[in-house]
Specification:
The complex is a heterotrimer of chains A (225), B (238) and C (192). With 225 residues, chain A is an all-alpha fold. Chain A contains 9 helices and no strands. The longest helix of chain A is centred in the middle third of the chain and has 30 residues. Chain A is globular and about 55 Å long. The relative contact order of chain A is 0.15. Chain B is mainly α. Chain B has one domain. In chain B, helix 3 runs antiparallel to helix 9. Chain C is of the alpha/beta class and 192 residues long. Chain C is built from 7 helices and 8 strands; from the N terminus they run E-E-E-H-E-H-E-H-H-H-E-H-E-H-E. In chain C, strands 5-6-7-3-8 form a 5-stranded parallel β-sheet. Chain C has a 3-stranded antiparallel β-sheet with strand order 2-1-4, with helices on one face. In chain C, a hairpin with a 2-residue loop joins strand 1 and strand 2. Chain C is globular. Chains in contact: A-B, A-C, B-C. At the A-B interface, helix 7, helix 8 and helix 9 of A face helix 4, helix 5 and helix 6 of B. Strand 1 of chain B pairs antiparallel with strand 8 of chain C.
Chain lengths: 225, 238, 192
């Protein structure tokens, strides 16, 4: 059998899915964490109508927590359990990276869309531009997945890695949250829609920059070749 | 070199007090804080970039010199960043009446400081020096993106720029008089010279520390550290 | 063939070893011995590319993913993946095709093919790790205390597996076990 990138990446994603679905705690806790964040923040809006501005901020804060909550699932858990060395022995760094990243993206996208749907329905929010909302969420999830995967890889062999992963990832995710909240606010009808799409381009540009740098940085730190 | 720098510092300090008060500020006399604040902010940005480039070079080459450069520049970026933040707070108190305003520019620069401090958190987490160097250099490399965002992009976003008290238009809008620039630019150049001098000393000190560590092992005679392990052929070969 | 030159590893200010140099070619067996904490496992990890050395370098002929097999006593496996899934994952990532069931029969673990890694005993885990190490026709086999945890039949199986590969493999063993040391053509002592 000839080794190809796609078969290796597929094998990595399959392994991640197998591990996740047989031990569902990670998926459940990520979803629960983001839902709890949304509903805890909604206490601030008792007796008041939730504005698009507030809703956008709450939604992205929830996604940020979901992303940070999933940090352990990427590489931290792998090195905590000692199984990271198996991947170092068998796989090329880029396959490992893209496999983990695609899996994180899938989890983040499912979480983001479920949370957004629940949020929009329960808060009776009027989505003025579903296209802007969806493109912002998809771009944002790509960026979240990328930063979470890379941050987790950087700290995975250090001490107190779980706490450190948050320290490394959070400040890097704030630009995304700032841009995401800006674009989503416009999707909820606050401010100029054109500005919203412009901010959405910013999300995708940040995502592309991180994606173009991430795999190479990962390959340099993952294994002693 | 040291004496030239000493004279330069003295001359520029005098110049910063003889420059006329800046117009358009609540307390024009106290606007002189920007003589230090602005060059420190520029220098922070420069050392952030140097740190990212050195980090990337270490990841590419695994040459220790780049790791030492990355560490020295991160050190200076954080020190200068703290100096920028403190002088900014002093300016804020003098001009706007409070040390902290949750101004978008102040807050975004605080996040830059967190990003810079993160480098040291990553370094402290590793016992193995190779793994530590890789992780810290990787962090320095990737954190240049959010740093750039918070320094250059975020304060200029239309929804942010309108709400900030920070006088961004003084530099870009050309509101400074020529005499102000005559002080700011030499001060910036001097700050860079002093910073790179410290940077260079840090790198050299790091190199010497590494050499000393290597020699330490050499002196552990009899402890196994200096032994050249010889492969011995077994008498009973299969 | 695997070779290293000037290899050294330091933790903090303490050198585990320095100036380790050797070359092991097909048909040879190097046994690394030394007291506990002398760096036997660390040396094998460096040779496998799992840890960076402080100084020196190591060289393996071919793509290490397929030409190098590694099994260690302290190497955990995925608790939720079955024995067969471990082998399938390794084959897919290495890009090789092999008869995993036949491989499991060779290490006498066929009966536990669908057992999850978390439910394996230490002896069964040692067999699985050996199977993963010899999955490809590797040219270098790095084994760190390979028979620890194996019962008498397991040790016989280990001897058979190693013997059948001696002619085509450069073998490096980290051990203080007298029976494993008897396989050596060369020996290196890291500890005093």
């Amino acid at each position: 059998m000839k080794s190809t990138w796609d078969s290796e990446i597929r094998a990595m994603v399959r392994k991640e899915l197998q591990c996740e679905f047989r031990n569902r705690s990670g998926l459940y806790s990520g979803l629960l964490l983001s839902l709890t964040t949304v509903f805890v923040m909604s206490f601030a809006f008792y007796g008041r109508t939730l504005t698009g501005e507030g809703a956008a901020g709450m939604l992205w804060a929830a996604l940020l927590f979901a992303g940070v909550g999933s940090l352990n699932r990427a590489f931290v858990a792998e090195d905590e359990n000692g199984t990271g060395d198996l991947l170092r022995l068998w796989a090329r760094p880029y396959s490992v990276y893209w496999g983990k990243m695609i899996f994180a993206f899938l989890v983040m996208t499912v979480t983001a869309f479920l949370v957004t749907l629940l949020f929009v329905v329960t808060s009776s929010l009027d989505v003025k531009s579903p296209l802007l909302l969806v493109t912002s969420l998809v771009g944002g999830c790509g960026c979240l997945a990328e930063i979470v995967t890379l941050s987790s890889a950087i700290v995975s062999r250090g001490n107190s890695r779980s706490a450190l992963a948050g320290v490394v990832a959070l400040p890097q995710l704030i630009p995304l949250v700032a841009l995401g909240a800006g674009a989503t606010r416009a999707a909820f009808g606050v401010g100029d829609l054109g500005n919203g799409f412009f901010t959405c381009v910013g999300i995708w540009a940040y995502t592309l920059l991180v994606v173009s740098l991430g795999p190479h940085v990962f390959a340099a730190i993952w294994k002693d070749s | 070199m040291k004496y030239i720098l000493f004279v330069l510092v003295a001359v520029l300090t005098v110049m910063s007090f003889t420059a006329p008060p800046a117009k358009g500020f609540a307390e024009p006399e106290l606007a002189r804080i920007i003589f230090f604040h602005l060059p420190a902010a520029f220098a922070t940005t420069i050392f952030c970039i140097v740190s990212a480039i050195a980090g990337l070079q270490y990841l590419r080459t695994k040459n220790w010199l780049w790791e030492l450069r990355c560490h020295a520049s991160s050190d200076l970026a954080l020190s200068l960043g703290i100096a920028t933040m403190l002088s900014g707070m002093l300016f804020s108190k003098a001009q706007w009446g409070a040390w902290w305003h949750w101004d978008p520019r102040q807050t975004s620069f605080l996040i830059v400081l967190f990003l810079l401090a993160g480098y040291f958190a990553v370094r402290m987490a590793f016992d193995d020096e190779q793994l530590r160097a890789r992780a810290a250099c990787a962090y320095a490399t990737i954190s240049v993106l959010p740093n750039f965002f918070f320094i250059a992009v975020f304060p200029r976003l239309p929804q942010v720029a309108d709400k900030s008290l920070h006088p961004s238009d003084t530099v870009q809008g050309g509101k400074f008089s020529g005499e102000y620039w005559m002080v700011i630019l030499p001060l910036f150049a001097m700050l860079l010279i002093i910073s790179f001098w410290i940077y260079n000393m840090n790198v050299r000190a790091g190199l010497l520390a590494r050499k000393a560590k290597d020699l330490d092992g050499m002196s552990e005679a009899g402890a196994g550290a200096t032994t050249s392990y010889r492969v011995e052929r077994q008498a009973t070969e299969n | 063939m695997i070779a290293c030159s000037g290899l050294g590893k330091r933790y903090g200010d303490r050198w585990l070893f320095r100036n380790v140099e050797f070359q092991v070619t097909t048909g040879e067996c190097l046994v690394v011995v030394g007291r506990n904490g002398s760096g036997k496992s660390t040396l094998l990890k460096i040779l496998a590319g799992l840890l960076p050395p402080t100084e020196g370098s190591r060289r393996v002929v071919g793509d290490p993913r397929t030409s190098l097999g590694y099994a260690a006593l302290d190497q955990p496996v995925y608790p939720v993946l079955t024995v067969l899934e471990h082998l399938q994952l390794a084959a897919d990532l290495r890009g090789v095709e092999c008869d995993n069931k036949q491989l499991l029969e060779e290490v006498e673990l066929g009966y536990a093919a669908s057992t999850a890694g978390g439910n394996l005993s230490s002896g069964m885990r040692a067999r699985l790790k050996l199977a993963m190490a010899i999955q490809c026709p590797v040219s270098v086999l790095l084994l760190d205390e390979p028979t620890a945890g194996l019962d008498a039949t397991g040790q016989t199986m280990f001897k058979r597996v190693v013997d059948s590969r001696r002619a085509t493999t450069a073998l490096i063993l980290a051990t203080n076990d007298r029976r494993e040391r008897s396989l050596a053509t060369h020996e290196i002592n890291l500890g005093l």
